[in-house]
Design goal:
Blueprint lengths: L1 H17 L20 H5 L5 H19 L12 H4 L4 H15 L4 E10 L2 E8 L7 E9 L2 E4 L7
Antiparallel strand pairs: 1-2, 2-3, 3-4
Helix pairs in contact: 1-5
């Protein structure tokens, strides 16, 4: 029974950390939002690339820390699109289970692969857990803050 719970938790965390991102840079793995069509994107003045990169890297660290600490506030690191597919209760349950299963983890080897306006792709790991190594994961800037946007498409 414990093995089944471990496998279920690992699958749920893999979804939370990767969404549907397979690490390929094809258009079908891109976030569903675009800088041109996102209302928040058109209202957010674009900071210089160095500032945007630093803010994005810090958001990845915050997201990863929250996911593996059981912190309910981590739900706020999800994009609006992802919040439509995952409730706060689901996030909290998953984060608490992640902390119990893996302990607190930090983002490792954070690398911004692509940054264009309010859209980005980031590669990073979570502690030293090989199955949580991510390549080209989508992130989106909404209301001036970078948010995790690797959830499955909802349509």
């Amino acid at each position: 029974m414990r093995t089944r719970a471990t496998i279920t938790l690992a699958a749920a965390l893999a979804l939370a950390v990767t969404g549907c991102s397979s690490g390929d840079d094809s258009d079908d793995a891109a976030p569903a939002t675009s800088a041109a069509s996102s209302p928040a994107a058109s209202q957010t003045p674009a900071p210089d690339e160095g500032t945007a990169t630093a803010e994005l890297e810090e958001s990845v660290r915050t997201y990863t820390r929250a996911l593996f600490s059981g912190d309910a506030a981590g739900y706020d690191t999800l994009s609006a699109r992802c919040k439509k597919t995952m409730s706060k209760a689901s996030w909290v349950g998953m984060a608490k289970a992640a902390r119990q299963q893996y302990g607190e983890q930090q983002a490792t080897d954070v690398r911004v692969d692509q940054l264009s306006g309010d859209l980005a792709r980031v590669s990073y790991g979570a502690g030293n857990i090989p199955q949580f190594e991510r390549e080209g994961q989508p992130w989106v800037r909404e209301d001036g803050a970078w948010r995790w946007d690797a959830c499955p498409s909802s349509g």
